[in-house]
Amino acid sequence: MDASWFFNTFKDYSVAVLALVAILATCLVFAIVSITLKKVEKRLKNKNRRWESAILLSLHNPLCVFIWFWGVYYSVQLLISYSSDELSYLILLAPFTQLVMAVLFVWFFMSFVKQIEKLLLEPVNGRKALNITTIRAIGQVLRVAVIVISVLIVMQNVFGIGASAILAVAGGGGITIGWAAKDMLANFFGGLMIFLDRPFSIGDRIVSSEKNIDGIVEHIGWRLTKIRTLEKVPLYIPNSIFTTMTLQNPSRMSHRRIREFIGIRYEDEDKLPNILKDVKAMLSSHEGLDQNQSIAVAFSNLSPSSIEFLVQCFTKTTDFMVFSEVKEDILFKILKIISDHNAKIAYPTSSIYIESESNVT
Questions:
Q1: Residue 97 domain-assigned?
Q2: Which of 110, 126, 142 is the last residue of a domain?
Q3: Half-sphere exposure (Cβ direction) of 231: Cα atoms closer than 13 Å
Q4: Do residues 24 and 60 both lie within one domain?
Q5: d(CA 134, CA 124)
Q6: Which strands, in side-by-side order, build the sheet including 256-264?
Q7: Which domain holds residue 278?
Q8: What share of the chain is helix, strand, coil (3-state, %, to 5)?
């Protein structure tokens, strides 16, 4: 076999061989980097170095894609160099490379913001987790800012469209877009007001009688808010509604009030003063009540079939189940006090008086 034939053949296939070697080298680098990152992430997590671990977790996937991209990109360049249209292909690859780099940067930043949100929402060493609504709002703002900046950079560097041209087009079409998307803008600014004023947060229960809303807030977005009603039905409300709506936030109440009118029989009116005295003494020593709040026990009303007195006090807890137990205990004790005074709870009664008339003969 002629040696010159061997070298000519090798020369013809050398580009393909080098491209194959580049792919194999990419596989090797990918395996090494992937294994190394996993070990470092595990070590950082064991040492409770949360911020460094968050950076590596965010960097892992984009970096692996970056390695594969450059391996394939270099192989394609080698194959293109063997083509007669090498220059035209390279002109097409250059903007594509910049676009991929921008996508990888946005991917890394989005992942990093997500990891930061998780870190700030986890209580550590006695530090309370930050407000979930505020963290989500800041995260969404950062995501939007990065996407907008990345799009401007790509349009300028890849497509050759300057920022001034983009702003000019945006300014010219702003009025038309604003009119067409006025509801969307209203919802956006409604969401912004929620984030700034914070009338409620994720996990709060909100009530609005005028809009027939009663449920737990699960998500606050820029366009709408998701509420889970007490019947466990999801309710999606545009944020613009909250700018004109009056609502209550029971989750932020400081106390729960017990307010009851209790009636005893008219036959027991002489026992009422002692009953009121004992009820007030019982409430003043009850562990479930906040003694710094007003406690009212007073004769309040003469109803058609009973003498009514008011019982009003405030519990320490705002949890509904605990509140119900405290209220139940208080009502049982009031019934016992009434019974101890040989009195009874009144119930609706009516009396019929019949006049007897003498027969006239």
A1: yes
A2: 126
A3: 4
A4: yes
A5: 18
A6: 256-264, 307-315, 296-302
A7: 253-340
A8: 60, 15, 25
As a whole number of Å, the end-to-end CA separation of the chain is 159
Tell me the CATH number at 200. Answer: 2.30.30.60
Pairing state of beta strands 256-264 and 205-208?
unpaired
Residues 109 and 187 in one domain: no
> What dihedral do alpha carbons 223, 228, 229, 234 form, nearest 10°?
70
- The pLDDT tens digits along the chain (361 residues) read 444 444 444 445 566 667 777 778 888 888 888 888 788 877 777 666 777 777 778 888 888 888 888 877 777 776 666 555 544 555 556 677 777 788 888 888 888 888 877 777 776 655 555 566 667 777 777 777 777 777 777 777 666 666 565 555 555 555 555 554 566 777 777 777 877 778 888 888 899 888 888 999 988 887 888 999 988 899 998 888 888 888 888 888 888 999 999 999 999 999 999 999 999 999 999 999 999 999 999 999 888 888 999 999 999 988 889 999 999 999 999 999 999 999 999 887 776 767 766 554 4
Question: Is 9 contained in some domain?
Answer: yes
Radius of gyration from C-alpha coordinates of the chain: 38
Residues 18 and 119 in one domain: yes
Q: Yes or no: say if 242 and 194 are a contact pair by the CB < 8 Å rule.
A: yes
Per residue, the 3-state secondary structure of 245-271, as one string, reads CCCECHHHCCCEEEEEEEEECHHHHHH
Residues 298 and 233 in one domain: no
- In this structure, the answer to whether residues 247 and 260 fall within a common structural domain is no
Q: Say how many C-beta atoms besides its own lie within 10 A of residue 21's C-beta.
A: 12
What are the residues whose beta carbons fall under 8 Å from the beta carbon of 170, sequence distance 6 or more? none
Contact 247, 257 (CB under 8 A): no
**Largest CA-CA distance found in the chain, in angstroms, rounded:** 160
Boundary (domain end) residue, out of 84, 109, 126? 126
Q: Is 104 among the domain residues?
A: yes
